[in-house]
Amino acid sequence: MSLVSVGGVAAFAGISLKTQIKSVSIGAKDDRIAESTSIGAIEGGANILLVGSDTRVGQTDVAAGVADGSRNDVTILIHLSADHTQMTAVSFPRDLMVDLPSCTGTNGATFPAADYQQFNTSLGEGLGCTVATVESMTGLTIPYAAEITFDGVIEMSNAIGGVDVCVARPIDDSDSGLVLSAGTHTLQGLQALEFLRTRHGVGDGSDLARISSQQVFLSAMMRKIVSSGTLGNPVKLYGLASAAVKNMTLSKSLGDTDTMVELGLALKGIDLSKVLFVQYPTATDPENSNRVVADESSATILNADLKSDTKFTLGANSTGRASAAEGSSGTASSGTTSSGTTSSGTAGGTASGSAGSGTAATSSPTATPSSSATSSPAATSSTLPSTITGQAASEATCSVGNG
Fold it and tell me: In 53, 238, 245, 283, which residue has its Cα 20 to 30 A from 146's Cα atom?
């Protein structure tokens, strides 16, 4: 296909997408930053908040469960370094107890501040309120945000042809309906959504265990997107965006499809070992053992590095250890790749004193990211404390089920 025809297809796709986009304000300050500065020119790097809503309103493929209103079932802060050489995705537990700041909701109403609230209630007041909460917790400015529904997750997984996910032990979750044998499975559609939502089917059944399992999926998805050349191809990027926008609410700053594509192109040359998925550090809530609170000492380090755009690596023990017996050894079931894999490396752990246990087991004992500094000798760098758990996208890891 010639460059002219590629450009024509991309332009046509962009016009089509713009007619489908639903956008909202996330706050006057954040809206103005995005309006006046491109993603590539934001000083200190760009911050984007991705929120997965649990609303059932208008959803065609999710019948299980009942949810009044909407909650942020999944919340991930993406920080893209100013030089586009490192991307960090920080997952916030839905069961985290936080102080909600005063904020402006989607309909323009102002909501008062409220102390000691469950984090996933912030979306009930609008996407801008979830953004304001994360800004208050981290000290960061977040000019870009997107809320995606269940159907959106399903459509995006279909658009990339599914994601190959390793399961170290069988998963059987009666709540989400997910049943997977040990092995490697190609997950897409409703099954991909069930995997991302399962908590009773992985690890100790906590939300922290679910986050670790989500990191396994997202890392595998990043590897597939990079290997297929999607990030360097505007047509493929518009195709991926098209699968999502019908089921998304975007901040006004992302309402321009060119901005979404600009973000994707900014990532096209990134080293997967520099794409880090981390869990916001937590400890057990002393008032409720089923909830967590921020581990302030570790969170302060993470927040400072993100705010100063400091490059960092994960601590040597950030993912804990799992025995080889936890690796998968069976043949994957129908709709999966041809064979299971064997785990012989690390497994996702949790922050010291936290309420849950991790669920990832690496398929290679050499996959732990290096703790060396970045390639630029002038760049500042640090190593996060091992209480901050996570993995690099370059690591092939396995979700540890409950079987």
Answer: 283
Q: 191-213 pLDDT, tens per residue?
A: 998 898 888 888 888 888 889 88
> In three state form, how does the secondary structure of the chain look?
CCHHHHHHHHHHHHHHHHCCCEEECCCHHHHHHHHHCCHHHCCCCEEEEEEEECCCCCCCCCCCCCCCCCCEEEEEEEEECCCCCCEEEEEECCCEEEEECCEECCCCCEECCEEEEEHHHHHHHCHHHHHHHHHHHHCCCCCEEEEECHHHHHHHHHHCCCEEEEEEECEEECCCCEEECCEEEEECCHHHHHHHHCCCCECCCCHHHHHHHHHHHHHHHHHHHHHCCHHHCHHHHHHHHHHHHCCEEEEHHHCCHHHHHHHHHHCCCCCHHHEEEEECCEEEECCEEEEEEECHHHHHHHHHHHHCCCEEECCCCCCCCCCHHHCCCCCCCCCECCCCCCCCCCECCCCCCCCCCCCEEECCCCCCCCCCCCCCCCCCEEECCCCCCEEECCCCEEEEECC
Q: What is the pLDDT of residue 122?
A: 93
The candidate with the shortest Cα–Cα distance to 361, out of 193, 184, 223, is 184
pLDDT tens for 38-97 read: 666 677 788 999 998 876 565 565 554 455 667 888 999 999 999 889 999 999 999 999
Residue 169 included in any domain: yes
In a domain? residue 6: no
With respect to residue 1, please indicate whether it lies within any of the assigned structural domains. no
Work out how many domains the chain is built from and give that number. Answer: 1
Give the domain range for residue 377: 13-400
CATH of the domain at 273: 3.40.630.190
